[in-house]
Write a structure and sequence with these properties.
Number of strands: 0
Shape: globular
Structural class: mainly alpha
Number of helices: 4
Largest sheet: none
Order of helices and strands: HHHH
Distance between the termini: 27 Å
């Protein structure tokens, strides 16, 4: 399973940050979680019985869902922008 390396994480932070020095806004957290979810999903396609990774995936999806709900309630337009740029919804 390939992990998210520092350069990929830095690129995501640069793309989704709201201000200089921002590393923890909802948008940044959602983007990082989405990348991790995609990587873990690919891993689980090959290793179907990796149940501990499945549990971790479910926790990440739940965390992202909570962050998206929070963003939708506070800033609906930013919510729409984030899901469109990440391709989360159809």
């Amino acid at each position: 399973m390939t992990l998210l390396n520092k350069d990929e994480k830095r690129e995501l932070i640069e793309k989704y940050k709201r201000s200089e020095g921002d590393t923890g806004s909802s948008e940044v957290q959602i983007a990082i979680l989405t990348k991790k979810i995609n990587l873990l999903t690919e891993h689980l396609k090959e290793h179907k019985r990796d149940y501990s990774s499945q549990r971790g995936l479910m926790k990440m999806v739940s965390r992202r869902r909570n962050l998206l709900d929070y963003l939708k309630s506070r800033e609906p337009q930013r919510y729409v922008d984030v899901i469109q740029s990440l391709g989360i919804r159809k």
